[in-house]
Amino acid sequence: MPLKYQKIWSESQKAGVWKIEECHSYFLDRLVLDDVEREHFDGLSEKRQKEWLASRLLICQLLNDYRTSVIYKDSYGKPFIKDSLINISISHSYDYVAAILSPNRVGIDIQKRVDKIKRIAHKFLNLEELHAIPPELVTDVLLIQWGAKESLYKAYGRKSLEYREHIRVLLYNSHLQQLQDACTYPLSFEGYIKTDSIFESYSLKTLRVEDYFLTYCQEF
Questions:
Q1: In the CATH hierarchy, which top-level class contains the domain 3-103?
Q2: 3-103 and 108-219 have identical folds
Q3: Domain residue limits, the chain
Q4: What does DSSP say about strands 79-81 and 71-73: parallel, antiparallel, or unpaired?
Q5: What ranges in the chain are assigned the alpha helix state H?
Q6: Per-10-residue mean pLDDT for the chain, 220 residues long?
C-alpha cells in the first residue's frame, strides 16, 4: 500500500493518498473492526470492500492509531471517528484512496484524469462557469471544478445542496493563466457554500498525483 502523497500541517491535521495494491487479508490483519463496521463491510461488493478497508487503514495511518479508531457514518452519510472531535473526509478513484483529517471542517476528492468529465459538466457547472473555461484547458478545469465542488459538498456534510446554485469555486484569470503558462500545481484558490440560510467559506488546493487530480478544502 504505497503512500503517494502526504501533507502534515500538525498532529491533528493531515492528508494522504495511497495506491491500493494489497488483498483483503492485508487490511483485515491490521484493522480492528467493531460489530457495526463488520456488518457494513459484509454488505459491500468485493471492490467496495477493498476501497473501504484501504480508506480505514489510511485514516489509521494518518492518526497513528491502528487499534482504537472506529469510523462510522452519520445520518447524512458523512464519515466520522467515534468519540473524536477530528473531522475526516475520504475519496476513491480506481486504485487510489485519499483521506484528510482536521479539527476544522474538511473535504477531499481524487479523480483520474479522463475526458469523460466533459459529458457531465452541465450537471455541476452553470452556464456562467462553463463559458469561463478556456477551450484548451477544458478537461483540467472541469476536473478542478468537480473536485472542488465535491470537496465542499463533503465538508458541508448535510446534503440538500445543488452544485450549480449553492457551491461556487473562485477560479480567477490568474489561476487559469497559471495553468496555461506551465500547468503548474499545486493550485491554491477559494470557494464557498451559500444558501438562503448559510454562508461558509473555504480554502482549496488542487495538485497532481501521477495521473490523478487531488483536491481538498478546509473551512476558514
A1: alpha beta
A2: yes
A3: 3-103, 108-219
A4: antiparallel
A5: 24-28, 35-42, 46-63, 121-124, 127-131, 138-156, 163-166, 173-182
A6: 86 94 92 89 94 93 80 92 93 96 97 94 96 93 97 94 97 87 82 96 94 95
Determine the topology of domain 108-219 in CATH.
Answer: Ribosomal Protein L22; Chain A (3.90.470)
pTM, full prediction:
0.94
- Find, among 7, 20, 44, the residue nearest to 92 by Cα: 20
Which of 82, 80, 87 has the alpha carbon at shortest distance from 101? 87
Structure-block grid coordinates of residue 71: 469510523
Q: How far apart are CA 107 and CA 103, in angstroms?
A: 12
Signed CA dihedral, 176, 184, 21, 7: sign only: negative
